[in-house]
Amino acid sequence: MPELRRDPVLGRWIIISRERKKRPSDFPVEVPKGNGGFCPLCPGNESSTPPAVLTFNKEGQNGGESKWQVRVVPNKYPALVIEGDLEKEGIGLYDRMNGIGAHEVIIESPSHDERFADLDSHNMALVFKAYKDRILDLEKDSRFKYVMVFKNHGKAAGASLEHSHSQLIALPILPRMIVSELAGSKSHYNYKERCVFCDIIRQEIQQDVRVVCQNEKFITLTPFAPRTPFEMWILPKHHSSGYCSQDDADLLALADIFSLSLRALSCCIPDVPYNFVLHTGPLHEPSVEYYHWHFEIVPKLTSIAGFEWGSGFYINPLPPEEAAEFLRQSMSLLI
Amino acid sequence: MPELRRDPVLGRWIIISRERKKRPSDFPVEVPKGNGGFCPLCPGNESSTPPAVLTFNKEGQNGGESKWQVRVVPNKYPALVIEGDLEKEGIGLYDRMNGIGAHEVIIESPSHDERFADLDSHNMALVFKAYKDRILDLEKDSRFKYVMVFKNHGKAAGASLEHSHSQLIALPILPRMIVSELAGSKSHYNYKERCVFCDIIRQEIQQDVRVVCQNEKFITLTPFAPRTPFEMWILPKHHSSGYCSQDDADLLALADIFSLSLRALSCCIPDVPYNFVLHTGPLHEPSVEYYHWHFEIVPKLTSIAGFEWGSGFYINPLPPEEAAEFLRQSMSLLI
Asked: pLDDT tens, B255-271?
């Protein structure tokens, strides 16, 4: 019997339809071919991107353009541009504004072939620190309301360059996803005076069927109502509404669990394409009791996504309890 | 300068980022290879699907299993099942229910190679009549709250069989898309006492930059804030909240404009994969002043969808005014 499940934050229903597929090997992945040739993100080719806005050397200090481990540059083909005034306008029924914003690329390693999942924790923590430093810098610009950090890994997930990188977009509006998440969290808080994500973490630890792994500071779960097979959320165990409140030690603990979770995923499904998105509170707002920052990792494995993203209705062939079990088994081989 | 635009019903913002791509030929489409061999949807193979729940012959009468032009069968691998009780359950924070529903396949033509866009208007109207008859039949089941009708055309849009077909899913809940649309429409109505879609149609006809085509009863638009290049909406010009209120003459006029719109799209981008979804009011509810049924046709052309469906934030490289102009030009070659 299939099952309908509701996400407790967004109210989004999904269908778990076990009949369709069952084991990790039932999800075929097209292994991307190398596109070879010139890579604008490789060391030595720094002049083919706009100048860096941030670099870290191995020690997390300013690395300049020559000795970088992580390098952040403005996107050469930005979706939004940083120069100009934020003109808002109504056209009859419709609302528009100038496409003011920032669009940056976080180059995660100098090595062309090193995948994000294979970075050692120290190097991955530098990437997380780069996210934090860039968000704090962009927050100084009062035109921006939100910074969305995300990664597309693999062609099927939208990556256009092979060299491992993530992106951030600073926006003059709150994206729909965060508006819904804030509203759902606030409504739970108004009713119960507790953070819904803290409640989720408590219940997950107690039920212990969807927990993938945890350390002192973070936990990885397969959510109760996942959109795709092997969807994972990584959350801080102690309440925190804003990503930027994390210190270096927190970011290292985050890197430990992030890296373990992604390696377990690769072990289940080699070369899996995925997206991850940082969900954090809006800019310029104090920390709040009702919201809880986290990462959502969404593998790109089901081809019916076309219909699903149009309708907001997801059909997932793999129950998250089974996905968590597969991930834990893979993990036992890794450690 | 890129531009941010807001959908007046859903409040969804999108980015129009012209810099990235400009002409229809800039959107490469992988032409699907024929998968050859046995087709369970072809005439003669009726026994390889569950028995039909509806058939029409060329005249729109019951065609039986031998003389059908349109044939509706239960999906052999249903996402939801029709037998059983609708048990609802809370598990701590979470809500689940049995996966009760119906999942049917509408086979749109006996010919294996005939595409939906190439059906003549009379045959396409029979497909639309099949949607209506199945919705009216499923509405008799009080467990169902909504019937979602959709089509995946092309592998990239999620079609797993070549033979032209659409699908419907009867659901015991309202999908998120329709909940948001009803809420947005109602909020506009409460403020203005007018249907937001009627207002959109009036403004579009008056501005005349995003109208693709119209006939006496229907209009095709590229919406003000489209998620993808060449997104199109087809709406009845006279207010109507439920699809099933259309009579045979209405469905023929719908087929005329639907077919013309899809052929113009194919002319701009041959073999374009697309999804369409029927947006109509919930079952068991009287017609309402604030909602307006319509079809949304969403071509699958941009590869960044992975991130976008995760975040609810779309980047579209082609302004809808230019898409409408390309479609109108193609149309002038067709007529």
From this structure: 999 999 999 999 999 98
Question: 212-231 in B: which are within 8 Å (CB) of A?
Answer: 224-225, 227
A105: CB partners within 8 A, 6+ apart:
A41, A49, A72, A73, A74, A75, A165, A166, A167
Among A189-198, B4-13, B61-70, where is mean pLDDT lowest? B4-13
Cβ-based neighbours of A33, under 8 Å, separated by 6 or more = none
Closest CA to A292 of A164, A159, A170, A202: A202
Long-range contacts of A173-176 (CB under 8 A, 24+ apart): A173/A97, A173/A145, A173/A146, A173/B4, A173/B13, A174/A145, A174/A146, A174/A282, A175/A146, A175/A148, A175/B13, A175/B311, A175/B312, A175/B313, A176/B10, A176/B11, A176/B12, A176/B13, A176/B311, A176/B312, A176/B313
Using alpha carbons, list the distances in angstroms from residue A71 to A111, A148, A167: 12, 18, 12
d(CA B58, CA B37): 27
Chain B residue at shortest CA distance from A96: B5
B71 assigned to some structural domain: yes
Chain B environment of A12 (Cβ under 8 Å): 176
d(CA B264, CA B327): 6
Any A CB within 8 A of B306 CB: yes
Q: Tell me whether residue A2 is in a domain.
A: no
Does residue A14 belong to any structural domain of this protein?
no
Contact B176 A95 (CB under 8 A): no
CATH of the domain at A134: 3.30.428.10
ipTM entry = 0.89
Assigned token pair, B318: 């082609």
* Identity of the residue in B79, B93, B179 whose CB atom sits nearest the CB atom of A8: B93
CA dihedral over B24, B29, B33, B39, signed as positive or negative: negative
The domain of A327 spans: 35-334
User: Residue B117 and residue B259: Cα distance in Å, rounded?
Assistant: 5
